[in-house]
Amino acid sequence: MTKEFKGSINLDVRDSVSDWDAFLPDKAPKGAPNVLVVLYDDTGQASWSPYGGRINMPTMDRLAQNGLTYSQWHTTALCSPTRSTFLTGRNHHLNGFASISESSTGFPGYNSHIPPSNATMANVLRDAGWSTFWVGKNHNVPIDEWTAGASKKNWPLAQGYDRFYGFIGGETNNWYPSLAEDNRYIDQPYSPEEGYHLSKDLADQALKMIRDVKQTEPEKPWYLWFCPGANHAPHHAPQEYIDKYKGMFDDGYEAYREWVLGRMVEKGILPADTDLTPLNPMPQGTFSPTDEVRPWDELNDEEKRMFSRMAEVFAGFSEYTDAQVGRIVDYLEESGQLDNTLIIYCADNGASGEGSPNGSVNEGKIFGGYPDDEEQNLTMVDKLGSPDTYNHYPTGWAAAFSTPYKMFKRYTYQGGVCDPLVIHWPAGMKARGEVRHQYHHSTDIVPTILEACGVEFPDTYNGVEQTPLSGVSMRYSFDAPADGQTAKETQYYEMFGQRGLWHKGWKAVSIHGPVSGVSNFDKDEWELFHSEVDRAEAHDLAAEHPDKLEELKALWMAEAEANNVLPLNDLQIIGNPKDFETFVGMEFHQPVPPSGQYVYYPGTSEVPERSAANVHGVSYKILAEVDLTPDSQGVIFAHGSRFGGHSLFISGGVVTYAYNFLGIPPEDRISAPVPTSGKHIIGVEFTKDGMGPNREGIGPLKLFIDDQQVGEQKIRTVLGHFSLCGEGLCIGYDSADPVSSAYPEPRFEFRGGEIVKVVFDIADDAYIDVESHLAAAMSRD
């Protein structure tokens, strides 16, 4: 709000009195804390050492030993929705984030645009005198605003953050990330060969931001939201961290579940009588088959070696990132800021089951609907975690790292929503090294931070009446008894059609897996758990307490109506034509020009794949207008990475179009001698005249120079996406991870001539395969 001017104004400045206080921003209360929130991805409680897991987290252990570990802290079961609750303190449907941005639909709870009535905590803290920073993963920018030319009103700077450095989508290559700084896309600062890893880069940037503030405003507190790419796929880590875990998961995920349950009890996380739930707990037909777990003793020796190595890589990735967080904590201690910094260290949902029963060395195959070649995967076991792979572990490890609970990420059982949380604030809490069992949720983080900072959320913001915060502060629990009563009474859950509700120690969950296509929500059977005594949700009491179940079901419906949860969406977009057609009518459509032509120019940043010309599953023509010299070389256009993409480039006196099918060797290449100097049109034409057994496009590819065909061969093209996030369309260079192994150098920028423009034409086949488009979208959580 504008402050009142308390000076005086007369004709002559000599007779007037100035009032600087009317124009200067508010200052935070004296002694107000800094706030550091560390939010990992895709991590079940049973993963990490503070909870008894095998993955060593020295920084988190240190904070837990001098702070509090929460045993019953919960999330929404999915990435973007949980993160939206950290942004605003409101339930995810109220934020428009029922799901991830890429699977938005045109309903109030599902559109991924946070309404003005849900102002962010960062705005409030900044107005109250804090510096505000967001480093790492975003995934809360609506899909229609990802491009360089789109509105930035939902980018971090407009959401109250003074600075942003990270990636916009749900995941990125940790060796070759797609980065943004503030309101623009940028190139990564150096290469993996020079020591680059995303986790390290993010910590470097976070430290710069904090140091800059303290250099000029030493008394000003700050709020930093630090969101590493870990532990979301792809699982990438330096080899020395992967090797730390060699052999540590050879006993398999079922043995791990038995082992870690005992450790969790020993740590005081779970009651001694907690039972282990079944590995595959849901009835057939109520969930997606891709979420099944293969029993360990049914695997052959090579599969066991591969699956164990995938867990080792995941563990190394997690610990390496914890070490980067440790650099921030070390700096806070050295600079005297640690004691009065409220540190919240947690994860956004349960362990990820997106790896399917067999895992993958390139998860793009899973989400593109193309089967993994297990034999080929096995040849890559020693390259897992390196730039050569884009790996994800199998569902068995998701179940293990979510022990003792049912299922994992996306499910509203505890396996999807019960997550690790450690809070450290020596200046604000007396307790040290204790466990807290009060039931809480991610909507409670904003109220907790605000109370700790002595800041109230306003009733109106920028003239807009605000929706009340959905959560309650956890501040009371800092010095409460470990088993003291929780301040929370009710929390609803919903994800992709599965429903749940917790109320005063009881929880009801529908037996209806996410994205299952079952529909018939009014006929759902529900389970009832007395979570106060059955933390694992192992014992269904619906038959014994039908009245309690009906009470909770009715309460769920009331919460749904109050939070924009309806209509429920469990559409099974793969293998269900009717559901597929329904979704097509609801999803966000990137408009196709009437001509079917997209024109691109050099000197521009990469175009995100969802906003670029869609050449997947269609016939297409690509025409590049160039002015060549004898020295011309480099990439004319490139889209994708070593894990899938296509590129047109000149090297060694030859012009080549390379199509990289999901990283499966060999690349399809068609080449011809570079034409003489001067203006030319270099073009390719792909005609889809059939489909392969996995719906990949098949047909002839022709290479043209001016009006002459200079080459032809048959190729196959991907139906889904080249990448899940990042690796957009580039003109005059290849971003980050190269599409083709034939380049003589990274990026291979065009020089020795001019690219006038590149035209993509899909006018003759403007069909967009939305089914695969959506399959990839659902993976980006």
TrEMBL record:
The keyword Hydrolase applies. Coiled coil: none annotated. It holds the Pfam family Sulfatase. The lineage of its organism: Bacteria, Bacillati, Actinomycetota, Actinomycetes, Mycobacteriales. Residues 33-455 form the Sulfatase N-terminal domain. Belongs to the sulfatase family. The keyword Glycosyltransferase does not apply. Keywords: Calcium, Hydrolase, Metal-binding. It comes from the Bacteria. This is Arylsulfatase. Residues 275-294 are annotated as: Disordered. It comes from Rhodococcus tukisamuensis. GO terms for molecular function: hydrolase activity; metal ion binding.
